[in-house]
Amino acid sequence: MATLATAHSKIFAKDAAGHSSVSRTNAVKPVRAFANEDIYFYVKRIDNSRIVRQVDPHAGGVCWKTIGSVGLAALLLIGVLLPSAYGLLAGYQIQSLRGEAQRLAGEQASLELQEAKMLSPARMEELARQQQFVDPEPAKVVYLDSKDGSSLALNQKH
To answer: How far is CA 130 from its chain centroid?
Structure first.
């Protein structure tokens, strides 16, 4: 088998008589041979189209056992991780509820302030003047007294 190194050494090497095809000044040193260049690998084509695979009677059982054990391991892993995931989601829900509670507390304080402004005595007097309400004379005021001393008004005919 001829390689570039052997072809090169044949062309440019000195022959036995001492003649050289190239002058001494331009002489090329021969390249050493490649490792294992004398080995030839023959690849034989193999045809397995006529071979029939034998059925293994235990292979089906092994497959089902493997599927069952992997499924059981997955369920076990889900069962182990589920409480921590539920706790994480509950933490998010608690934080959102705390934020909503703070917002509602602020809204309630704002509404109580508005209510206090609306029910202040100065505002009531202003509304009474605008609607021309007048205080009744003291003689026209009737106080309802019950027999047991409570101040509930009784709805009785006299």
So the answer is: 63
What Å distances lie between residue 53 and 46, 48, 49, 56, 133, CA to CA?
A: 16, 10, 11, 9, 108
User: Could you tell me how many helices (H) and strands (E) the chain has, helices first?
Assistant: 3, 0
77: exposed, middle or buried (Cβ count in 10 Å: 0-12, 13-18, 19+): exposed
Type of residue found at 6: T
Tokens (6 digits) for 78: 């889900």
Rounded to two decimals, the pTM is 0.40
Q: In terms of Cα–Cα distance, which of 16, 3, 15, 10 is closest to 30?
A: 10
Who has greater pLDDT, 97 or 134?
Answer: 97
CA pair distance 141, 158, nearest whole angstrom: 18
